[in-house]
Design goal:
Keywords: Membrane, Transmembrane, Transmembrane helix. Belongs to the EamA transporter family. Helices cover 76% and strands 0% of the residues. The chain is mainly α. The chain has one domain (2-284). The longest helix is centred in the middle third of the chain and has 28 residues, at 169-196. The two termini are 13 Å apart.
Length: 285
């Protein structure tokens, strides 16, 4: 079950990143984050009321709140790093986020077997290569590297926190709701500060309403991915769940290939193949 939930996480995150990337071509990235997360929070609020999730309130919600505060900081750092570029360095480097939950798992006493350890190494290498690493050409600004490392640490911390936020399904709905509320408040505050400084929150023509379904998909896919990752971490080793969930860049690259006809570079194709081999080793190890 761990492998199934973790692979579902990578699929959902990969599609959410692909959709979010398309939307940021039409509106500011922070607006995409705030609107999509607001829609997700509204849906989760309805689920919490319908399932009686409020009864699951307890100390574990602090983990969800912390994840909600860290997540937007990581995402904004990542977007800023991508803006500074080059993307061929920034995107693969962000996969270092997997080191945080793996480290947590090792500290908690998890010891992957030889086959699983090989799977972790192969899968992580595959993910890095699938991002199309740029090994030569444009120079990399030190600020871009620093921001990417901040983003990777933040993403990995969210991985670890959300895995501890609940122990039941109804409690998970509540934890994700709290996380989303924190996302909206943090992102909304950043958006407000940006507007006060003269940054545009919307395109010149206003909010393109035909983009609302896509915004809803991005927010709900992201929320579902957090949920399936929490379930994966609860049903098996965190080390395995984290690595399999980190395959989402492969999904994003394949989605770009399928929907935008973007050609995969040879290194990306090789990375996708290695990621698949690593996931098989992890699932069977």
């Amino acid at each position: 079950m761990t492998a199934l939930f973790a692979l579902a996480t990578s699929l959902l995150w990969g599609l959410a990143d692909f959709g979010g990337g398309l939307l940021t071509r039409r509106m500011p990235a922070l607006t995409v984050v705030v609107v999509s997360q607001t829609i997700a929070a509204a849906v989760l609020g309805a689920l919490v009321v319908a399932t009686g999730g409020w009864s699951e309130a307890g100390p574990r919600l602090w983990f969800a709140l912390a994840a909600g505060l860290v997540g937007p900081v990581a995402l904004l750092s990542f977007y800023q790093a991508l803006a500074l570029g080059p993307m061929g360095v920034v995107s693969p480097l962000a996969t270092l986020s997997v080191a945080v939950p793996i480290g947590v798992g090792l500290v908690l006493g998890e010891r992957p077997g030889l086959l699983q350890a090989a799977g972790i190494a192969v899968a992580v290498l595959g993910v890095v290569l699938a991002g199309g690493p740029q090994l030569r050409g444009a120079p990399v600004q030190r600020q871009a590297i620093l921001l990417t490392l901040v983003a990777a640490l933040g993403f990995g911390t969210v991985f670890a926190l959300i895995a501890e936020a609940s122990t039941t399904v109804t409690g998970l709905f509540l934890a994700l709701f709290v996380q989303r509320l924190a996302n909206v408040v943090t992102g909304g505050a950043a958006l407000y500060i940006g507007m006060r400084r003269g940054a545009a929150a919307l395109p010149d023509e206003g909010l393109p309403w035909r983009s609302v379904p896509a915004l809803a998909f991005v927010g709900l896919a992201d929320v579902a991915a957090n949920g399936t990752y929490a379930l994966a971490a609860q049903h098996g080793p965190v080390t395995v769940a984290a690595v399999l969930a980190s395959l989402y860049p492969v999904v994003t690259a394949l989605a770009a290939r399928g929907f935008l006809s973007e050609r995969l570079r040879p290194v990306q194709a090789a990375g996708a193949g290695l990621a698949l081999v690593g996931s098989v080793l992890l699932a069977t190890g």
